[in-house]
Here is the input.
Amino acid sequence: MCNLYRMTKGKDEVAKWFEAIEALGGANFGEEVYPGYPGLVVASGELRQMTWGFPLVMKGKSGQPLKPKPVNNARTDKLDSFFWRYSFEERRCLIPVSAWAEAQGPKGSKTRTWLSLPDSELFAVAGVWRDSDEFGLCYSMVMTDSAGSAAEGIHSRMPVLLRPSDYEGWLSGSPEEAKSLCRAWDGEVNIDRTDQPWVKGAASQKNLL
Here is the structure.
């Protein structure tokens, strides 16, 4: 599962990398992306800024509306559910990523472990997107089972990583073709265990449906 990732490239470089039209205007985004904050997405041939996380509308004990929760991870085995179905069938996207983080260590003193791909400063994670009343344009990462070194004491799930040859199938293929790409990564993964604290708040949310 992923609740924090890096995207360290500039928007012009990302647009060129994915052969997308830049549709950002004066958009600003940070190199570290947290749930509920803006990130870059390639959708419909354009590089856009969207909010990371689909809004989950919540109510208090007395029925009063609460601040929506950003659901930033979509499990592969839940893509047919009502919450995700129409976005998966009609609005798939690529999420440019430089590395993603997982929390490691004992409760209360967890640190960040960064995972990335060898010899690749930028890669694509499978995503879905929609327009919402609460967040405007928003997106979520698709998650699958971990494999290899990424599964060894780190986390049982990881983002669906796409090779360039898979981009078109994910973006424009049938739901069956797209779902066939939601498999465990069989390539090498770089693992960087750091002493950076896993900050409470945005990075510690566990929003997965």
Q: What stands out?
A: The longest strand covers residues 123-132.
